[in-house]
Write a sequence for this structure.
């Protein structure tokens, strides 16, 4: 089977290598913290950006030949994870759907993500080389409450995309709605259970 390590060595810029290994290291810390499968998390982290930085012409060629939705044409930011998710199965024999989904949705998120998916999404957004407002809050929150961190990250992403007039993928919108609902339900449950025992009849 082909090795992702030699692919990284041959194709990645120094900056991309640093990012990928930083995502892997942080993802493993989160995996240990939340009891996720280390092997799945590490594999997803190493593959997640294998098509990041590939020239747009080449990305468009993959989009057409792999039969991906035309919305990914001229949009390498969205397409790179989708292409990687297919190629890692086709050429590297990775068949675990949880690993494939984690790579596929690492840019957009989606509703009802698995633990591996959440960890990759958050590790990608908060690895130590990332610098943007509120990243420290996200880093702290990601070890306290993964769903809350995910929601905050999705909200930031949507605000950023809208403020720049960029293309907003529906999976990101649906993910935000899903985790907002989940958060509301959790709050309601907490409030109702904090009333103590029912009064005697
Ligand atoms: Fe990426
Ligand atoms: Fe990344």
């Amino acid at each position: 089977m082909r090795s992702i390590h030699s692919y990284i060595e041959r194709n990645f810029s120094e900056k991309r290598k640093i990012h990928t290994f930083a995502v892997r290291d942080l993802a493993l810390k989160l995996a240990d913290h939340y009891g996720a499968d280390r092997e799945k998390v590490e594999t997803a982290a190493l593959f997640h950006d294998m098509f990041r930085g590939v020239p747009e012409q080449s990305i468009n060629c993959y989009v057409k030949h792999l039969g991906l939705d035309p919305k990914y044409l001229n949009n390498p930011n969205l397409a790179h994870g989708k292409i990687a998710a297919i190629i890692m199965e086709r050429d590297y024999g990775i068949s675990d759907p949880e690993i494939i989904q984690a790579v596929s949705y690492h840019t957009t998120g989606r509703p009802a993500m698995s633990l591996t998916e959440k960890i990759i999404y958050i590790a990608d957004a908060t690895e130590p080389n990332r610098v943007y407002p509120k990243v420290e809050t996200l880093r702290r929150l990601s070890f306290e409450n993964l769903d809350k961190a995910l929601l905050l990250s999705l909200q930031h992403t949507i605000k950023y995309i809208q403020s720049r007039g960029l293309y907003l993928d529906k999976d990101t919108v649906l993910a935000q709605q899903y985790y907002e609902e989940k958060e509301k339900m959790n709050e309601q449950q907490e409030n109702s259970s904090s009333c103590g025992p029912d009064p005697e009849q």
Notes: The radius of gyration is 18 Å.
